[in-house]
Design a protein that fits this description.
With about 775 residues, this protein is of the alpha+beta class. Among the domains are: about 110 residues, Dna Ligase, domain 1 (2-Layer Sandwich); about 100 residues, D-amino Acid Aminotransferase, Chain A, domain 1 (2-Layer Sandwich), CATH 3.30.470; about 160 residues, no CATH class; about 100 residues, Phosphohistidine domain (Glucose Oxidase, domain 1). About 45% of the residues lie in helices and about 15% in strands. Strand 24, helix 22 and strand 25 form a beta-alpha-beta unit. The protein starts with a helix and ends with a strand.
């Protein structure tokens, strides 16, 4: 309330009596005298009634509410009644009901003590509560409220029937009883401002008299709380009614993230999108440890600027995957003018920034390996914790931020052009020839994603030394963005295992075969569209070069992620925390190295965070699409769960017999029949026999050496521009990606027919 008053909100005048004003449960005489003198200075009629309210340490906090547990006394008059009321409220912190509530939630009701607030009473004509988001569903489409006639105590205690009302976004359109409409404009303006300034959805108590609204309280909505720092629990699906997707992101970050990794990825995303969305809606999310993207937010921004659903889905499908036609896409209503005021300046700056970074990219890629090596050397030489924190702030973090910026430079131009080019080609020549024309990226220079598999073949042929291979690819792997996983180069037996598992496949021959298919598709295109052919050839060549730049920039980012891991390993050595360093955020680690209280407190959370991470890691991979509030433990315990979609708002459907087909994206053309090998992780890749069809939830560059042994690839997660699709196209291996349910519906040994050109998988008789 002090913050609200200082910020100029309409808060009734009052004072705060701190715990040290009491001796035992009684006011100190000097404290009572000071209270009387302060009351004389308060604004308003001197004989007006007072409200005496509790203010315990954790009351109405972001974590717990203690709703109704402490005493509140209203309409207090006279000195004797006031003193008694103050002491009654103060003593309520020791009430049995308070202690029972605190014990149930693991909270401390008394530390560091109880304060008491004394305020002028508002002679309320109406009073109530207003939530800036629906506390049950998390929907941000409207502000929802309840009110009663007279004082709000009747509403809180349940003694009066509430009047329900709504204020619809984006402009606060009122719906509800006519008698409350006079307050609608004030309430909407105050709530919008509070939500923006306090950083999230708010639970607001208010009272109105004489047509004017006064604020009595504002706090975060506890049911929309996404994280708990002490336990390491984090679930952004609880923060609102959003549609989340892990397509593309799920293959880049396939593991349950440790707190250190999540904090690193937040740095990465801030460099890509250094903007706070209106209403502070999250752009990325941590859903019980796994990385997701908020598809509702990007879709809502597009919808606010005039895009229809069909256009939104068409624009996002290539990168974020196809949305089932019957799945709702919850949108956040944004007001157009404020949105333009935010996005237009940001867009202009972003365009200049990206162009500058694209000019810088070639020089950066030429020197990033040397930069990383120098940082490794510097980290190894530090022997003082404070000096290590200084090196993090001055060199390591800026280097990772720079790598993130270069990743954006290498990605943005390629992906925008690739989506447009793909749509043009599909319309002109169909999906199969489109995929053939977009393959052959490796012809003009090495594609970074193909580097490990081609490099292994070169090592086996004596064309590349083992030391050079480790130097070039030792930072790449299936878990390359998870900081707690060792880099492959850290394992002296890694290369031998890779060579042992790699089939003696002539990789250059595979690439040459695919380039021949590209050439044949090009001949067909040029014969059919001779006038468009020269321009299309330039676009294809530019797209191939862009694809190589994107993959090279991704390699630079993962190399710098290895430097961040080296920083944490050095911190572990200097502090004795061992692998506990991965259960601190990067800034908490720096604070601990500097000896700051924040860092010491965070260290005490390590055991609980480790336990949470272990519980999350024991669960199966979550669905690619998640809408609304998602409880991963409840979902995992459901024998009828879907592995592709979770929709908290959907009505349960009766079970039906499984279909004999799976559909996904046409990742790489070709038709293959064979037996399935379902692999839960890349560590089990040795089980894949040559000629079997690889089925995995997702794949990334760590799976690349496995691809030549596979007759085809099927994934749960993916899109036409995802890793599995690109690499499979280059190697000429049929692929269907983004099926959603392949790992649930297929079992090792099943026979299937994979049609990569149609994005279809057919189950065949045994």
């Amino acid at each position: 309330m002090a913050r609200l008053a200082q910020a100029g909100y309409p808060v009734p005048d009052g004072l705060v009596i701190m715990p040290h004003a009491f001796e035992g449960d009684t006011l100190h005489p000097d404290g009572w005298a000071l209270i009387l003198s302060l009351l004389a200075k308060m604004r308003g009629p001197q004989d007006s009634p007072l409200a005496v309210r509790s203010s315990a340490a954790q009351e109405d906090s972001a974590l717990v509410s203690f709703a109704g547990s402490f005493e509140t006394l209203l309409n207090v008059r006279g000195e004797a009644e006031l003193r008694q009321a103050i002491e009654t409220v103060f003593r309520s912190h020791a009430a049995a009901r308070v202690q029972a509530y605190a014990a149930a939630l693991g909270a401390d009701a008394s530390a560091p003590g109880m304060a008491v607030v004394v305020q002028r009473m508002v002679p309320a004509e109406h009073a109530g509560v207003l939530f800036t988001a629906d506390p049950v569903s998390g929907s941000h489409a409207a502000l929802v409220g309840n009110a009663v006639r007279g004082l709000g105590e009747a509403l809180v205690s349940g003694e009066a029937d509430a009047l329900a009302f709504q204020l619809a976004r984006p402009h606060g359109q009122y719906s509800g009883p006519p008698e409350l409409k006079r307050y609608a404009r004030q309430l909407f303006a105050l709530a919008q401002r509070l939500e923006a300034e306090l950083g999230g959805p708010q639970d607001i108590e208010w009272a109105a008299a004489g047509g004017r609204v006064a604020l009595l309280q504002a706090r975060p909505i506890t049911t929309l709380r996404a994280s708990n720092a002490a336990t390491g629990e984090w679930n952004d699906s609880l923060a609102g009614d959003y549609l989340w997707t892990n397509t593309n992101y799920g293959e880049a970050v396939p593991d349950v993230m440790t707190p250190a990794t999540w904090s690193m990825l937040q740095i990465f995303m801030h460099e890509l999108l250094p903007i706070t969305a209106p209403g502070r809606h999250p752009i990325i999310g941590n859903l019980a440890g796994r990385f997701y993207f908020n598809l509702s937010l990007i879709s809502s921004l597009m919808a606010a600027t005039g895009f229809k659903r069909a256009r939104i889905l068409a624009e996002t499908e290539e990168f974020y995957g196809r949305l089932p036609p019957d799945m709702d896409l919850p949108l956040i209503p944004f007001a157009l003018l404020p949105l333009f005021a935010l996005l237009v300046p940001f867009g202009l700056k972003a365009k200049r920034r990206v162009l500058a970074r694209q000019r810088e990219l070639p020089a950066y890629l030429a020197g990033e390996a040397a930069t990383a090596e120098a940082l490794h050397t510097a980290l190894g030489a530090v022997n003082d914790p404070a000096a290590l924190a200084a090196l993090w702030a001055a060199s390591v973090r800026p280097a990772f931020q720079h790598a993130s910026q270069m990743m954006q430079a290498g990605t943005s131009q390629y992906e925008n052009a690739a989506r447009a080019l793909r749509r043009t080609l599909v319309r002109a020549v169909g999906v199969e020839d489109c995929n053939a024309l977009l393959s052959g990226i490796n012809a003009g220079g090495a594609l970074a994603s193909l580097g490990p598999v081609l490099g292994l073949w070169q090592v086996s042929q004596g064309q590349l030394s083992q030391a050079d291979f480790v130097a070039q690819y030792g930072h790449r792997g299936a878990h390359e963005l998870e900081l707690s996983w060792p880099r492959p180069a850290e394992d002296p037996n890694w290369l031998a295992a890779q060579l042992a598992n790699a089939a003696q496949v002539d990789v250059p021959a595979l690439l040459a075969r695919q380039q021949a298919q590209h050439a044949a598709a090009w001949e067909r295109y040029a014969a059919r569209f001779p006038r468009q052919a020269p321009a299309m050839r330039r676009k294809l060549d530019e797209g191939a070069a862009g694809g190589r730049r994107r993959e090279a920039a991704r390699g630079g980012l993962t190399r710098m992620a290895g430097v961040v891991r080296a920083y944490l390993l050095r911190a572990a050595a200097l502090t004795g925390l061992g692998d506990g360093v991965f259960f601190l955020t990067l800034e908490e680690m720096a604070a601990h190295l500097r000896g700051e209280a924040e860092g010491q407190t965070a260290v005490s959370y390590i055991p609980a965070r480790r336990k949470t991470h272990s519980h999350y890691s024991a669960l199966p991979a979550y669905p690619s699409l998640i809408r609304g509030r998602f409880d991963p433990f409840q979902w995992a315990a459901d024998p009828n769960r879907r592995s592709d979609i979770f929709d908290a708002q959907a009505r349960p459907q009766p079970a039906t017999a499984p279909d004999m087909t799976l559909t996904g994206y046409a990742g790489a053309a070709g038709v293959v029949e064979g037996r399935v090998r379902v692999l839960a992780s890349v560590e089990a890749a040795g089980e894949l026999l040559a000629g079997e069809i690889l089925v995995a939830a997702t794949t990334n560059i760590g799976w690349t050496p496995v691809f030549p042994r596979a007759a085809a690839v099927i994934t749960d997660v993916g899109a036409p521009l995802s890793h599995a699709a690109i690499v499979a196209r280059e190697l000429g291996i049929p692929a269907v990606v983004g099926t959603g349910t392949a790992t649930m519906r297929l079992r090792t040994g099943d026979r299937v027919r994979v049609n990569g050109g149609l994005g279809l998988v057919e189950l065949l008789p045994a």
